[in-house]
Specification:
nine-stranded antiparallel sheet, two-stranded antiparallel sheet, 5 helices
Length: 294
C-alpha cells in the first residue's frame, strides 16, 4: 500500500506546482497587458471636474465638465425611459477617445458667443437673465444647443429631404402649401405657409402653429445646409435653427428667441469654433484653449 500512495502523492504535488506556476504566468501576463494599456489623458477644470471624452464627428474630443448642460450620451446607450431587460443589462464599453458620442447639449449666448459653464460668471449671467428678462417678455439671449454625431456614412448631410417631406405632409394633413417669398430675410431664402393666409378663414395666419415660417440657406451644390423654422405667434417667438458643418459629419440644433435670427451666420461660425476647441489628439493631448474652461 505504501508503494502505491507515494507515486500518487508525488503526482498531486507536481500538479499543484504546475497549477501555481500557471496562475503566476497568468498574473504576469495580466500585469503586462495592463502596463501596455495606453494611459488616457483626462483633463480637469479649476474645480477638479473631469472633462467628458469620446469621439465626435470622427475626431477625439475633451468637453469641459462644467459646460455639459444635461448629458453626454454615447452610441448604444439606452434611452432615459428605456426600462427593458436589455437596457438594464447594458454595460457601456470603456470610455475612450474612440468611443462614439451620440449627442451632447449645452447653453450658448447668442450676443457674444459665450458658453455657459457651471460655477463661472456665465452661469450667474444665465440665472440673472432667466429671472429678469423672461418674466417681462424681453429677448432671452441664450440658446439651448444639442450636437448630434452622424455615424451612418450613408446619411445625407443636408435638409433637402426634410424640406420635401414637410411640404408633402402639410399638403396631405393641413391642406396648404409653402411658397417662397420674393425677398430674402437676413440672406436666407424665406418660405411662408400658404403665403401667410389661413386657408380655413382666408385671414392672415397669426394663430395657427401648423405652419411656422421656414428659412434656409443652400450651398453651391444646391444642398440645404441651414434649416430654420420660426414661430410667428405671441410675444415670445422661437426659432429652431439646424445646420450641418462642412468639415465634420455633425448636426447642430439650437433653439432661441426669433429676435436673434439676424445672427444666424455668426452663430454657426461660433459654434463650429467651440466644437473645434474641444478636439484633441488621439491620446487626448489638448490642441487649443477649450471653450467654456477658465
Amino acid at each position: 500500500m505504501k508503494s502505491i500512495f507515494k507515486p500518487c502523492f508525488k503526482l498531486i504535488c507536481l500538479s499543484c506546482l504546475l497549477l501555481l506556476a500557471g496562475c503566476d504566468d497568468d498574473k504576469q501576463a495580466g500585469d503586462k497587458a495592463a502596463q501596455q494599456q495606453p494611459v488616457l489623458a483626462r483633463h480637469q477644470d479649476r474645480f477638479g471636474r473631469y472633462d467628458s471624452i469620446g469621439n465626435l464627428g470622427g475626431k477625439p474630443v475633451s468637453i469641459p465638465g462644467g459646460v455639459v448642460f444635461t448629458w453626454v450620451r454615447y452610441i448604444g446607450d439606452p434611452g432615459d425611459f428605456d426600462s427593458s431587460k436589455q437596457a438594464q443589462k447594458y454595460q457601456r464599453p470603456p470610455i475612450t477617445y474612440q468611443l462614439p458620442i451620440e449627442d451632447i447639449d449645452f447653453q450658448y449666448r447668442l450676443t457674444d458667443g459665450a458658453v455657459k459653464t457651471r460655477r463661472e460668471q456665465t452661469e450667474e449671467d444665465y440665472l440673472r437673465d432667466n429671472e429678469t428678462l423672461i418674466p417681462v417678455g424681453k429677448p432671452f439671449p441664450w440658446g439651448y444647443t444639442i450636437v448630434y454625431n452622424i455615424v451612418d456614412p450613408h446619411q445625407p448631410l443636408n435638409f433637402n429631404k426634410a424640406f420635401t417631406d414637410t411640404q408633402e405632409a402639410k399638403k396631405e394633413v393641413w391642406h396648404f402649401e409653402y411658397f417662397e417669398q420674393p425677398q430674402k430675410v437676413h440672406g436666407l431664402t424665406f418660405f411662408k405657409a400658404n403665403n401667410g393666409i389661413d386657408p380655413s378663414t382666408n385671414q392672415p395666419w397669426q394663430d395657427n402653429i401648423a405652419g411656422p415660417d421656414i428659412l434656409m440657406s443652400k450651398n453651391a451644390q444646391g444642398e440645404i445646409k441651414t434649416y430654420i423654422r420660426c414661430d410667428f405667434i405671441g410675444e415670445v417667438q422661437q426659432c429652431k435653427h439646424q445646420f450641418y458643418l462642412d468639415n465634420l459629419p455633425i448636426l447642430i440644433s439650437i433653439t432661441y428667441n426669433r429676435q436673434y435670427l439676424k445672427l444666424w451666420q455668426q452663430t454657426e461660425k461660433n459654434i463650429a469654433s467651440i466644437l473645434d476647441s474641444w478636439v484633441v489628439t488621439d491620446k487626448g493631448a489638448l490642441i487649443k484653449k477649450q471653450a467654456g474652461k477658465m
